[in-house]
Amino acid sequence: MQIVHRARVYDGHFKLNKLTLKTQEGEELPREQFAPGHAVAALVFDTQQQHYVLTRQYRVGAERELLEIAAGMIDKDESPETAVRREIQEELGYDIDQLTLIATVWSSPGVSAETIAVYYAEASRQSGQGGGLAAEHEQIEIVRLTREELAKEALLDAKTLLAVQWAQLHRS
Question: What is the largest CA-CA distance in the chain?
Fold first, then answer.
C-alpha cells in the first residue's frame, strides 16, 4: 500500500485526515485516519509508601470512568521524557526519581496515527496536589493501590494493562 493523497478534513481539538491508498494492483481506496498527535503514559510507584499511584477519570470514548495510568499528549517541541514528567506532576503531583521506557506502541493502528510511549516511574515524594489542570477541565481522582490490590483490579485500559503486566514481570 502507498498513500497517494492526504487531506486534513477536520482540524479541531483532534485532527482527522482523509487518505487515498493505492494497492499493488493499482486500486485506490479511501480511508480516514484519526491523527491526535503522540502521547505518553506512566505507571507510577511511590517508593516511600510502597504503592502504585493511578488515576480515575471520565473518558469520552469509553463513556465512563476508567482506572488508568497517568497519561497525556506530547506538546510541540517537547520530548516524551519531558512530557511524561509534566503529566505525572499535573495529574498526580509527583516528582520522578527514576524513569524507565517500557515500550512505544500504536494505540489503534487500524485507524489512528497516535503512538503512546509507556513508562514505569518511581517517585519518592509528592510535591503537588495533582488532580489535573483546571484550564483543561480535568477532574482526576488519584488512586493509590498496593501491589496486591492492583493485581486484583479488572483493568479495561490497554496502556494500563501493558504497564501493570510489565511491572508484575520486572518489579515484583
Answer: 60
Alpha-carbon distance of 155 to 84, in angstroms, equals 21
Query: Whose CA is closest to 17, among 6, 1, 29?
Result: 6
Residue 58, C-beta contacts closer than 8 angstroms, at least 6 positions apart: 64, 65, 139
Cβ atoms of 58 and 64 closer than 8 Å: yes
Q: Which residue has the cell 505507571?
A: 43
In this prediction the pTM is 0.91
Q: Are 133 and 56 in contact (CB under 8 A)?
A: no
Pairing, β 125-126 against β 15-22: unpaired
Kindly list the domain boundaries of the chain, sorted by start residue: 2-34, 39-170
In CATH, the architecture of 39-170 is: Alpha-Beta Complex (3.90)
What CA–CA distance (Å, rounded) separates 131 from 128?
9
- Residues 90-134 have pLDDT tens digits of 999 999 999 999 999 999 999 999 999 999 999 999 988 787 766
